[in-house]
Amino acid sequence: MHGAFVRDGAWWWSRVAEPLAARGITSHAVDLPSCGAAAPLGGFADDVATVRSAIAAIDGPVVVVAHSYGGMAVTEAAAGMPNVAHLLYVSAIVPDLQSVLTSGWVPADGAVATTVDFREDGTIGENARHFVDRLLSASDEDTKQAAMTRLTRQNGAVYAQETTAAAWREIESTYVVCRADGDVTVEIQRTQAARTKAVIELDTNHFPHVERPDLIADIVVDLVDRVPTA
Fold it and tell me: What are phi and psi of 177, to 5 degrees?
């Protein structure tokens, strides 16, 4: 599950999908309806419904991977889904009946990047160049250019919507802390990670699935291998 301000989830996860496929693991990327070029965009309930539908469509046990804002939708959507075997949060929000704004994800002083802009249509976004230079700092220019074409607006209302379920309370979960994250401090990530069962720390920026897909693929393979077979 992708995070905020992006579209084309398949591209963002493609570098992980390839090694997974080589090891016989099928993956599915989901596009969240709250992200798009312009209003009207879907709300948080639409994000949750989309994730639940994607999970339900998969036959057999599922490891659900969430990045950044994607943790909000996954935490609610996966609750009560019998085929979800594990949750993997990658520098992601792990809410406990909270909104993005009350989950501890936003710095205590309420500061946001100065390049985030708020429009009258209720959407928010960020300057593309600043976004990739800050969060894809280990990537080459071709990757940054490709990423910039896949940045988009998001419905700002989703940040105030509280979750009504916490899947991590009933499903085994793992958190990947990105120690070189240019967006979310290590302290905030570790606070979120405290709600999960296991924590892995990587020396990567905010998008390890783009810049170090080998590490994320290895983690997913390990989790899949641990899923009990009938």
Answer: -90, 130
Residue 133 has pLDDT above 80, yes or no: yes
108 membership: H or E segment, kind and range: none
* Beta pairing partners, 117: 125
Q: Could you give all domains of the chain from N- to C-terminal order, each with its CATH number?
A: 9-225 (3.40.50.1820)
Torsion of CA 212, 215, 219, 220, to 10 degrees: 50
Q: Which amino acid is at 140?
A: D
Token pair belonging to 116? 């985030």
Binned at pLDDT 50, 70 and 90, residue 47 comes out as: very high
Listed in order, strand segments (DSSP E) in the chain are: 35-36, 62-67, 84-90, 116-118, 123-126, 153-155, 173-178, 198-202
Q: What angle do CA 221, 223, 227 make, to 5 degrees?
A: 115
On whether the CB atoms of residues 105 and 175 are closer than 8 A, the answer is no
- Angle at which helices 128-135 and 141-148 pack, to 10 degrees? 130
**Separation between Cα atoms, residue 172 and residue 7, nearest integer Å:** 28
The answer, as to whether pTM is greater than 0.85, is yes
